[in-house]
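Make up an example, fold above all:
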Amino acid sequence: MTTPWNRFKQAARLGEPEPVPVALIVDSPWLPGYAGIDTLDYYLFPEKWLRINLDLMARFPEAVWIPGFWVEYGMAALPSAFGARIHFYHDRPPSIEPVTTDISHWANAPLPDVHEDGFMPLALRIYEHMESRLYADGMGIKMIAARGPMVTAGFVMGITDLMMGIVTHPAEINQILDKITTTIIRWLRAQLDMLHEPEGIMLLDDVVGMVSLKHYQEFVAPHLQRIFSEFNGLLKIYHNDTPCAHLHEALAEAGFDVFNFSHEVDIGKVKASMGHRVALMGNVAPLDLGVRGTPPEVEQAALSCLDKAAPGGGMILSFGGGVSPGTLPENIDALLKAARTWRKPSPSPTSKES
C-alpha cells in the first residue's frame, strides 16, 4: 500500500509520486496551542505529548509530520548542554540566555556529554520509552532532529558576537563550530540509537542564511557537509527559512536530500537555482496564509507552488518553514486538498512541419 510516508520518501529521492506528499514541521510553538494545553504540560507529561501526536495523525491522516513524535524543549536541548540558562513559559517555547560572549572561553570549552548534560538525557529517556510503545503498536519513530552549528553557537555566545567573531576571530569561530558539530553528530547518533528502524534526520539552522557566500564556504559548508555525510543511507532534511537565495546553489552541495526554505523566495526560482539535486519542501507562507489566510487562499497558493515546482518530481508541499503558532487546522486541510486535486499539466502539443 502506498502510504503518505512512502510518497514522502519517493519525492525526497526526486521521484514524482501521485498525489504530491504534504509534510509539515510541527513542534512546541504550535502543538500545545493547537491542543489547548499549557506548554509546560506538553514538555512535562509524556502521556499528553503522546496523545497530542497520535491525535494529530488521526485528524490529518494524509499528512506527514516532520520529524514526527519529536521530543524537544523548543530549541533548548543543545544549548542547555553547553550551560545556557533556559527560561520556560506557560504559553510559548523557552527562551535561551547566552552563557558568555567570550570567544576564548568557547574555543577552549570541553565538549558536553550527550548522555548526561542538559536536557539531552531526559529527551533520550523519553525517546527510548515511547519508541518501545509505538513500535509495539506497529508505528515507531522514523526520524529525529537537531539544531545546526550556527544557530547553536548563536544561542550559547550570542548572535552578534558570533557574526562579529567570524570577521575578528575566524580561527576561533571555526574551532567553536567544529566542537558544536561534533556534539550535534553525537546527539543525532544518540537519538538514532533509541529507535528500532530509523529512516531519517532533520537539521534546522536559520542562522546560516545570514552569512555571505564567502563566509558560508569558509565557516558553514564544511560543518554541514560533515554532519550530513555521517548519516548516509538515511533521509536528510535541512530546514532554513531565512531568505538566502545567494546560498541556494552552494547549499545544494551540502549533502541533504530535502530543503525546507523561506516562503519569501519563489519556489520556481529555487528549483531553477538548485537544479534537480535536492527535493523542495515548501513553500506556502506560514504566517500570512497559514495563520491569517482563508482555506481558499491557502489552496490557491499551494496550487501555484505545485504548478511551478512539482513537474519533474522532487516536490513536497508544505509551509515555507514550520507550522506557526495559531495555524488553523482548516488551512492544513486546504494544503491537503490542493495536493489531492492538483494534476500535472499536459505537455504542449508540438507542431509538425508539413
The longest strand covers residues 235-240. Residues 170-192 form the longest helix (23 residues). The beta strands are 22-25, 63-66, 85-87, 95-97, 143-147, 200-204, 235-240, 258-261, 279-284, 315-319.
